[in-house]
Amino acid sequence: MCCTIPRIRRRSFARCAWRSRPRERISLTSPTLSPNPEQNVNPWGRLLYPVTTLYCMSVSLGQGGAGIGSDINERMVREWSEMAGFRRFRTLPIEDPVSAFFEMRI
Predict the structure, then answer these.
(1) Where are the alpha helices (DSSP H) in 1-106?
(2) How many Cα atoms sit within 13 Å of 37 on the Cβ side?
(3) pTM of the model
(4) Residue 63 CA to chain centroid, in angstroms?
(5) N or C: which end of the chain has fewer CB within 10 A?
């Protein structure tokens, strides 16, 4: 998930929550990064940080966003889902070195 326009992304979460039925599940994937930069000193972090700095953060700032770039992590996705109205949020037990998988439900 390249978070280029955080304000719109939050509205998108709210639209998903509003349109969801109680038993419906919404899934989401995000890069596997720690909120602590020192824990991201690995090949994946070395690739993702420059790409998101050059693209995601720049586009976000250029469109009036928060310029989050690669700093998106489970905590942020959890907060956005709660603000949107999802009552259940969990990290799916899928082992993947590149992506984290989440599930949101009303």
Answers:
(1) 6-19, 43-51, 58-62, 74-84
(2) 7
(3) 0.64
(4) 18
(5) N
Q: How many domains does the chain have?
A: 1
| Cα–Cα distance, 49 to 31 (Å, whole number) | 11
Q: Answer yes or no: is 1 within a domain.
A: no
Structural domain boundaries, residue 58: 6-28+36-105
Q: Is residue 71 domain-resident?
A: yes
- How far does CA 41 lie from the centroid of its chain? 20
The residue-averaged pLDDT of 72-86 equals: 82
Nearest alpha carbon to residue 35 among 79, 75, 67, 92: 75
Distances (CA, A) of 58 to 28, 30, 34, 65, 88: 23, 19, 21, 9, 32
Tokens read off for 97? 């070195």
Task: Calculate ∠ Cα 19-23-26, nearest 5°.
Answer: 60
- Domain presence at residue 51: yes
